[in-house]
User: Fold this.
Amino acid sequence: MEHLDVVVALVAVLGLAVVADQLTGRRSLDQALLVGGVGAISGAFLHLRVFAAGTMDGWGWVGWSVIGAVLCLFAHFLFRGKR
Assistant:
């Protein structure tokens, strides 16, 4: 498959958002998906453009996008307002 890396990145971020939402008490899956997606895009951008560590042809950006999603989800659930 030509775009298998993109599919893997999307499924990984979706899975991370669902797991993070489950672990934090199922408060808002849409927020977790949004934050995880933004983190994944940021991680891929850092890998591809800022550090120029690789291209979209490789699998390195997938790892960076997952790391970005994890960091953003952690920060979101750490600093979000509690009711």
